[in-house]
Design goal:
255 residues; alpha+beta; 5-stranded antiparallel beta sheet; 6 helices; 44% helix; elongated
Length: 255
């Protein structure tokens, strides 16, 4: 999503206008005032101005062709990105954490992460110190890109920690490669997009996650963490849902 530099266009147009004016002036002298003696230097200058003027005209024409192409490309990309985000923002289960054992100062759990269609993406077992777990998700808000408000959020699981283990020392749930796969998982199930386009858009999202400047320049309103947590009193199962409103909720189920 590139932006054409308006200042560059103005400079090119101004330069072309000045060169055209000079060329017209000398042409006027040569045609309507032949009695005036014009040195050979001015004939050379006239030819030079004509060549430079043609060159700048071609440059401006190419620049405007690029501008039109880029504008159309941005519009099509925006439509595709809306479809991508709409697919990933559907209400669904993102994760399930099962507390299978616990004591006064630690607990064992199984964490399952799910793809777009509810298929199991990753399953891992962990043992942590503490009596309360925290499951952190990264939420990307696309309101600035899409202008209209709504369920314009994508969320993915980030870190598992506890009341005894700080976030910075927590367990990272997805590696870089796993995150790329997670963002494009079930690419053949996306509505309105083919698999190749889904992978391309997921790479764009990954760049937004990895680079804050890139994210801001491309209309991502915010990238924030949202940690859901629960005190451990018994063996339990907790499911995390992405809601249609774009928020996250956690529901406890019987073990």
């Amino acid at each position: 999503m590139l932006n054409v530099d308006l200042k560059t266009i103005i400079i090119l147009l101004s330069t072309t206008a000045v060169l055209s004016a000079l060329y017209t002036f000398f042409q006027f002298l040569f045609k309507f005032h032949p009695e005036k003696k014009i040195s050979k230097f001015f004939f050379i200058l006239l030819t030079f101005l004509k060549s430079i003027g043609v060159f700048f005209f071609i440059v401006i024409a190419l620049y405007f062709i690029y501008y039109i192409y880029n504008t159309i490309n941005q519009y099509l990309t925006l439509i595709e990105m809306k479809k991508y985000v709409k697919n990933l923002s559907r209400e669904r289960v993102l994760a399930k954490i099962s507390i299978i054992d616990f004591s006064e100062n630690s607990f064992n759990c199984i964490l399952e992460l799910y793809s777009l269609t509810g298929k199991l993406f990753k399953k891992s077992s962990y043992q942590l110190n503490g009596t309360e777990f925290y499951l952190d998700f990264v939420v990307l808000n696309f309101d600035y890109m899409f202008i209209e408000k709504g369920s314009n959020n994508i969320a993915y699981p980030s870190t598992l920690f506890s009341d005894s283990i700080a976030y910075d020392n927590g367990i990272k749930l997805l590696s870089s490669n796993e995150l790329k796969e997670f963002l494009s998982a079930d690419s053949d199930k996306f509505i309105g997009l083919n698999s190749k386009k889904v992978i391309s858009l997921s790479n764009f999202i990954f760049n937004c996650i990895s680079n804050d400047d890139f994210a801001r320049k491309n209309g991502i309103r915010s990238i924030i963490g949202s940690a859901l947590h629960h005190k451990i009193f018994s063996k339990s199962i907790y499911k995390v849902y992405l809601q249609n409103t774009g928020g996250l909720s956690m529901v406890e189920e019987n073990f």
